[in-house]
Amino acid sequence: MKTVCEVLKNKNQNITHIESNMTAHEAMQLMANKKIGALVVVEQGKMVGIISERDYPNRAKTKCKPLLGVLVKDIMSNHVVHVTPNDSIERCIELIARNHVRHLPVLKNEEILGIISIGDLSKIQSAA
């Protein structure tokens, strides 16, 4: 049975994150520049949420503010579904399906080791 640790071995280990007091515009620009779909949101080095490319169009428009006026903390997901390096790929797929998310941060003792996406899981399953 393959684990999250095996998925992380095949990924770039640079973890892109953003502070919660940055703007949604800055988050969207960072994701576009890095060609990624989600960012871990941090405060004082600790994960406090996650923001995805879908959060602005789905949540920010309810704030009735322009993109430059919406902060990451206003639209991020506070309840972050996450996994550990020892979790199985099957468990990840179950969490993604049950929680309707596309990205899972990988944590070990509150340290952020990476993010795996539904695409990463799909690739590893098709290679099996």
Features:
6 helices; single chain; two-stranded antiparallel sheet; 128 residues; three-stranded mixed beta sheet; alpha+beta; 37% helix; 5 strands
Kindly describe this structure.
Strand 4 and strand 5 form a beta hairpin. It contains six helices and five strands, in the order H-E-H-E-E-H-H-H-E-E-H. The radius of gyration is 15 Å and the shape is elongated. The longest helix is centred in the first third of the chain and has 11 residues. It is α+β, with helices and mostly antiparallel strands and 128 residues long.
Structural class category: alpha+beta
Order of helices and strands: HEHEEHHHEEH
Average pLDDT reading: 88
End-to-end separation: 10 Å
Instruction: Describe the global form.
Output: elongated
Question: Largest beta sheet: what is the strand line-up?
Answer: 1-2-3
Biggest β-sheet: count, sense, barrel?
Answer: 3 strands, mixed
The helicity comes to: 25-40%
Rg: 15 Å
Hey, roughly how much beta strand do the residues contain? 15-25%
- Counting DSSP H or I runs of 4 or more residues, the number of helices is 6
**How many strand units?**
5
Low-confidence stretches: none
Summarize, please.
Helices cover 37% and strands 23% of the residues. The model has no long low-confidence stretch (mean pLDDT 88). It is an alpha+beta fold.
